[in-house]
Amino acid sequence: EDKVVQSPLSLVVHEGDTVTLNCSYEVTNFRSLLWYKQEKKAPTFLFMLTSSGIEKKSGRLSSILDKKELFSILNITATQTGDSAIYLCAVARGAQKLVFGQGTRLTINP
Amino acid sequence: DTAVSQTPKYLVTQMGNDKSIKCEQNLGHDTMYWYKQDSKKFLKIMFSYNNKELIINETVPNRFSPKSPDKAHLNLHINSLELGDSAVYFCASSLVLGQGPNIEQFFGPGTRLTVL
After folding, report:
1. Could you point out which of A10, A18, B14, B44 has its C-alpha 20 to 30 Å from the C-alpha of B112?
2. Where are the domains of chain B?
3. Cβ contacts from A onto B, under 8 A
4. Which residues of chain A have a Cβ shorter than 8 Å from any chain B Cβ?
5. What would the pLDDT profile of A53-108 be if each residue is shown by its tens digit?
């Protein structure tokens, strides 16, 4: 059965800290791995990773995929209170199907 | 302009009722989806439609029936609602490009369904 597991499930840090969120997967017919940020409403897209070892960056956020070890990490440096959200990892398999992890709830305290 | 919209945003109803949730996307995407997010925030795909044709149908009770009148709309009808149906339902869409689908999915704002 397809599985996407995120850790930690919950993380509380202070503003300015750096955090690393983890996502491991066991999925047949892997196509890519995606990260989403979910605040109060709908998930919003952050990154899509298809190749191993190539870091994707957007401001203070960065992510990398390891297809050999079947995991990805999402780094956030110099965290701000606005980074507080649930971060979702999803793996695309086959035709247009996304399998989601359970999410990491990140809380940034001032 | 809202890219993926859903109505209603909130739906409170009694057990046993039948209800519908509507979804529309103005992105010109070919593929639309319905997801259910439970109280633990776990997102699970229910259905996927490509150009009005059903392509993914996960293990979902027959009480749930999606309907796609055109590729910009995917509605979800639920019969005989049960307490366990209470959740947030998200609609999403993605663009299919040639042989390889662009699988970035854009999500609607969600519909919070509460069954009493």
Report:
1. A10
2. 4-115
3. 57
4. 31-32, 34, 38, 41-45, 48, 86, 88, 90, 92, 95-100, 102-103, 105
5. 889 999 999 999 999 999 999 999 999 999 999 999 999 876 567 889 999 999 99
